[in-house]
Amino acid sequence: MIGIFDSGVGGLTVARAIEQLLPDHSLTYYGDIAKTPYGPKSPETIIKYSIHNTEFLLDKGAELIVIACNSASSVATETLRKRFHVPILEVISPAAQRAIQTSKNGRIGVIGTRATIKSGVYEKKITAERPDCTIFQVACPLLVPLVEEDWLNKRETKMILRRYLHPLKNKQIDTLVLGCTHYPLLKNLIQARIGKKVNLIDSSIETAHYVKDFLIRNPSVISKSKDATHRYYASDSTEAAIQVAKRIFSRPVELIVI
Ligand code: DGL
Fold first, then answer.
1. Are 85 and 119 within one domain?
2. Fewest CB within 10 angstroms: 15, 41, 130, 132, which?
3. Tens-digit pLDDT profile for residues 9-66
4. Which residue's C-alpha comes closest to atom 2 of ligand 1?
């Protein structure tokens, strides 16, 4: 079974993409809604929460863990890989890889939470393979609460986006990494503000392809089950979380609170 965790419901963008690409695989999701958001928290705290989330999924029988959260992927991946003996996949490498392949002029923007941007992980991964690239990073801490409030089409959200993207506008970027689980829900607004010539990289889609490729290369990691089950656990349930989950799946999602 594939175990997926996130700080809340944003990681359902990743879970949904995985479900669409791998419909025959069982999947268990854990959203740490009680402690969301992770983005403004310290690396030590995010690591502690990530260990707990991984243990929960392993208890449920996960054979592979996907860290469906950019903030947790940025700071906790190494610790989880040292501590647990199942494959730990994360959302940064697939998105960074796609950015490397996509950018022609080597000028790449990255937007994400404070934790992700402060870690510099996208810049490190991209420039390690393509030293010719220049990375322009912007932390956008207000976007997660706006998405959680379902303010997807509000004037205020457009204004805030314009302000965040302004520093990237004159940098001639040709690629922009959406380095946060929530940003796919703002894709159209972001595209309109950054310009249609800029390629947006959606880390949820890239991660789903990465998981699929990984399982093709390592088929023995996951034991085959006859009926694929999809379960979504959470450490709390809020009205906002239920709405975001519904928006991501275009249908109501049952969150099992533990
Ligand atoms: N899941 C987080 C991320 O992708 C966004 C929400 C949070 O800050 O917890 O970075």
1. no
2. 132
3. 999 999 999 999 999 999 999 999 999 999 999 999 999 999 999 999 999 999 999 9
4. 69
CB atoms within 10 A of CB 133: 18
Q: Do 198 and 102 contact (CB within 8 A), yes or no? A: no
pLDDT for 6-17, tens place per residue? 999 999 999 999
Q: Is 137 in the pocket of ligand 1 (CB under 6 A)?
A: no
Tell whether 33 and 7 lie within a shared domain.
Answer: yes
Note the pTM of the prediction, 2 decimals. 0.95
Which domain CATH number covers 137? 3.40.50.1860
Ligand 1 atom closest to Cα of 37? 9
When divided into structural domains, the chain yields a total of 2
3-state class (DSSP) for residue 67: strand
- Tokens 């029988």 belong to residue: 61
| 108 shares its domain with 28 | no
Ligand 1 pocket test, pick from 29, 35, 36 with the greatest ligand atom count within 8 Å of Cβ, gives 36
* Residue among 5, 50, 70 to mutate when testing ligand 1 (max atoms within 8 A of CB): 70
CA of 67 to the centre of ligand 1 (A): 11
Which of 136, 104, 142, 139 has the alpha carbon at shortest distance from 123? Answer: 136
Q: Which of 205, 61, 62, 180 is nearest to 114 (CA)?
A: 180
How many alpha carbons fall within 13 Å on the CB side of residue 30? 24
- How many helices (H) and strands (E) in the chain? 11, 10
Single-letter amino acid, residue 53: N
- Give the domain-ending residue among 160, 177, 203: 203
